[in-house]
């Protein structure tokens, strides 16, 4: 029996344990939140090191990426180094493969016609492969890294500008405390409505769910949401706001969509190989053999969800 544990800086209220079968192997998938306590996360990893088959590192990214460059967060390295025997992953391998493929799948299968859709990607440097895939799909993408990452209400309108800003800023911000840029612990449960004009402009909201959730307004009528980890209560919160359709890049496992770090850890465990030995082609093969597909769920008006969003006459954000 394989055993995978995601140790997360997120809220312990989102903890979950589930047993399933992946690529013909029985596996226990577990998520343990530390409510933003970094030392507790480190201690937990040390305690379980060598006793489980793979760790996922949740609530924090090891790297941010732009183009071919990547920068490691100082805080994330502290957590990752606590694992000396058991392999540990942050989901980055799947973000570059699974999430890019999901966008292509949605377009080619006709599930979500993204061409021309006004798309707010809340954070792109943590899932750059998806950002590139959205642009390639013909979506009109507004990247919210300055808005949702640094609190600077300036939209980024091209990948070229995003790369330039990342090259200039990433070496500095990755040395600072991670909590300055991303909600951890109980802050993940709070909603502080903000930046409504950007939400209002978009037809499609894409990216990390906690970043979408943190500032979402009371009304998101008719919008599509493409994200990662959601619980049943998250789905209800989106339904209550009028979201028409939800797509998660990871499948529904035991009543919820786990983070990419959990799924990547599970694939590492069943492969029997170290993460550094697995290439993008290996991940694509494992995804295909496991039959993994995105979760697509209609939450609101089926005609709106399936027939494409009607572009409303409001203006683009200033």
Mind explaining what this structure looks like?
This protein is α/β, with parallel strands linked by helices and 318 residues long. It has 2 domains: 2-90 and 258-290, no CATH class; 98-252 and 294-307, 3-Layer(aba) Sandwich (Rossmann fold). Helix content is 36%, strand content 20%. The chain is built from 13 helices and 15 strands. It has helices at 38-48, 74-80, 92-95, 98-108, 128-136, 145-150, 159-173, 196-201, 209-214, 232-240, 260-271, 280-290, 302-307; strands spanning 2-8, 16-22, 25-33, 54-58, 63-66, 69-72, 88-89, 118-121, 140-143, 204-206, 224-227, 245-248, 252-253, 256-257, 295-298. The strands form 4 sheets. Strands 9-8-10-11-12-15 form a 6-stranded mixed beta sheet. A 5-stranded mixed beta sheet has the order 2-3-1-4-7, with helices on both faces. A two-stranded antiparallel sheet has the order 5-6. Helix 5 (128-136) links the parallel strand 8 (118-121) and strand 9. Helix 1 (38-48) runs parallel beside helix 2 (74-80) and helix 4 (98-108) runs parallel beside helix 5 (128-136). The longest helix is centred in the middle third of the chain and has 15 residues, at 159-173. It is globular and about 50 Å long. Residues 303-318 have low confidence and may be disordered.
